[in-house]
Amino acid sequence: MTANQHRPFHKPRAHGARLFLAAVLGALWSGPAAPQGAGGQAPDTMAQRMQACTVCHGKEGRATNEGYFPRIAGKPAGYLYNQLLNFREGRRHNATMAYLVEHLSDDYLREIAQHFSTLDLPYPPAQTIGAARLQLQLGAALVQRGDPGRGIPACVACHGQKMTGVEPAMPGLVGLPRDYVIGQLGAWRTGQRRAAEPDCMASIAKRLSPQDVSAVAAWLSSQTPPADSKPARQAKLPLPLECGSGLQ
Amino acid sequence: MRITVAKAKRSGLVLVAVLAALAALVWWLNVRGEAPIAAQRSGGAVDAAAIARGAYLARAGNCMGCHTARGGAEYAGGRGIETPFGVVYAPNLTPDPETGLGAWTEAEFWRALHHGRSRDGRLLYPAFPYPSYTKVTREDSAALHAFLQSLPPVHQPNRPHELRFPYNLQASLAVWRALFFRAQAFQPDPGQTAEWNRGSYLVQGLGHCVACHSSRNWLGATNGDDELGGGLIPMQHWYAPSLTAGHEAGVGDWSTEEIGALLATGFSPRGTAMGPMAEVVYRSTQYLSAQDVRAMAVYLKALPQASVEKELVEPAPADLMRLGAKVYEDRCAACHGDRGEGVAKAYPPLAGNGAATMESPNNLIKAVLHGGFPPATQGNPRPFGMPPFKQVLSDGEVAAVATYVRQSWGNQAAAVSALDVHRAR
Predict the structure, then answer these.
(1) Which end of chain A is more exposed for a tag (fewer CB within 10 A), N or C?
(2) What pLDDT score does A217 carry?
């Protein structure tokens, strides 16, 4: 952990820059970027710099909901920054990600997070179709109400009523690949994935049974994300648990 | 019969005597030149200037690279260094009295750096690169000691090494040192400029460049006759190119500015720091003063260049080149250019790039498999990245595109096989 990671996020850059970015993204949509020819120049953009991310996370970090790779476009910048730090500092384990971010500075990771958080791209249609009714019921119940008897808070209490995340650091979960959600909850349970203390998600994941995990993943991946999939502005306080990742 | 017994007894005695003499020799070779530790300068007042200089020197030696675990407290140790003989865990350098260097005097610290001996008299494993650090001056050693003693103490017990028999024995280490290590001071060359000598001191001493850029024998000792002649980094499959051969990373025909740019920023018009070298730039050389970077560049540029006979390369089969060309067009050309020309300040050229055409194809394969960013440095704070292709390209496709790069646009290097790729995965 480093000293200046508590620094607040910069506001997204000026609208002109965003428009320009959007224009560049549009141009990139049909294929890899084209810094042309000998003596040519690469577009001086974050999109061009982040070509490294596209093979797995899709162009512009959009991904699909079919494979294992999570969408990163439009996630809150604080969440993305925390994850980049966690990969670099060994709190999350993925050899590919750790290698990519190993020699990147806090400032650059913050800018990378900011870049992907500003992308506003449509979601693909829901992935999971025809999950068992009882499983979906259990998933919906856990997401919307939790299970107070077992100390499991509702997912929506932190991740937003629409489950599209909450600024500055709670990720949206709708539209994520089912396998990814199962993989992550499993990693929280075994300590393979960690966050800054107090590690609220680790405490919650350890209270979930394997059936709970499957049900939540099935329900989340069978939802069609709402038209406005932006993270909510503010969480309803107090949060059900003390959480270090909001401040990380 | 009696004669035979007497003979056997005699040869037994001779054997014992020889072994005892050898042991004595090994012991002597291990302690020669070591002055007794006197309680000198210990805990004395150290001024802020010495601490600041020590901090700078710790960067030059990249102490943190090994002595800080991923996500752990700075200099508190715990990182495991994998070697062919087992794992060596870097110890805690913070001044915690129980688990760190809190009780170490300046003289004891100097002895570790110069003679490779710990405070309790035990021999240190040369994963701690004292075969290089032995050339660090006493004055610089004292500054490093002052700096480390100024750090916040972290209570973190050292993790014992996990070395296999017989490498885990002090006696084995004593034999190794008798064969391959001799404490020595840095010898300036009066026939060279002060700048060259400063570069020589940094490269040979704290920089410990030889730890990677030299081949090692079966006991892990670097090859003294071929210093900086390149070597495969143990366990990592990265090849640290020769600094004395122009077709690898020999920089004889680079300008000192280009060499300096690579060391200071990780990026130069001639090549980019990647893999383990990215770490060196990120944690160490980017923090060096412009004068020191230039001194290292001057020294490296003046290294005697080995003459290499260019062997004729057998052209790769046409179908391999065709597949390689297709993968290149789909995955690489957009950034590296149709003719491997690269893009200034963003993507390194592949035509004429030594890293792509060295005899060992490992680094090229690694680059394709793992992609990566050059290090984010003050001089190149927002580097352009390359995607990792290991998820989407098969071993055969990686081999084909690597072969295509090695045999196009004037590049001439041997074809790469799917087995080469498989081994590097």
Answers:
(1) N
(2) 95
Write down the domain spans for chain B.
48-180, 194-301, 318-424
Query: Measured between CB atoms, does B382 come within 8 Å of chain A?
Result: yes
B194-301 topology per CATH: Cytochrome Bc1 Complex; Chain D, domain 2 (1.10.760)
Give the pLDDT confidence score for residue A22 in this predicted structure.
42
DSSP secondary structure string for all residues of A132-198: -HHHHHHHHHHHHT-BGGGTB--THHHH-TTSSEETTTEEP-TT--HHHHHHHHHHHHHTSS--SSS
Q: B385 vs A55: CB contact, 8 Å cut-off?
A: no
Partner B contacted by A90 (CB < 8 A): yes
Asked if the C-beta of A51 comes within 8 angstroms of chain B's C-beta atoms, the answer is yes
Report the C-alpha gap between B78 and B100 in whole angstroms.
Answer: 12
ipTM of the complex: 0.91
User: Do residues B74 and B58 touch, judged by C-beta distance below 8 A?
Assistant: no
Amino acid letter for position A11: K
CATH topology for B318-424 is Cytochrome Bc1 Complex; Chain D, domain 2 (1.10.760)
| Inter-chain residue contact A37 with B338, CB threshold 8 Å | yes
List, run by run, the mean pLDDT of 10-residue segments along chain B (425 residues): 74 91 89 75 70 97 97 96 96 98 95 96 96 96 96 98 96 95 95 98 97 91 80 88 80 90 93 94 98 97 81 91 98 96 92 90 96 96 96 96 97 96 90
Q: What's the number of CA atoms in the CB half-sphere (13 Å) around residue B103? A: 6
Q: Which residue in chain B has the smallest CA separation from A36?
A: B337
Strands A165-166 and A170-171: what pairing?
A: antiparallel
Same fold, B194-301 and B318-424: yes
Asked if the C-beta of B70 comes within 8 angstroms of chain A's C-beta atoms, the answer is: yes
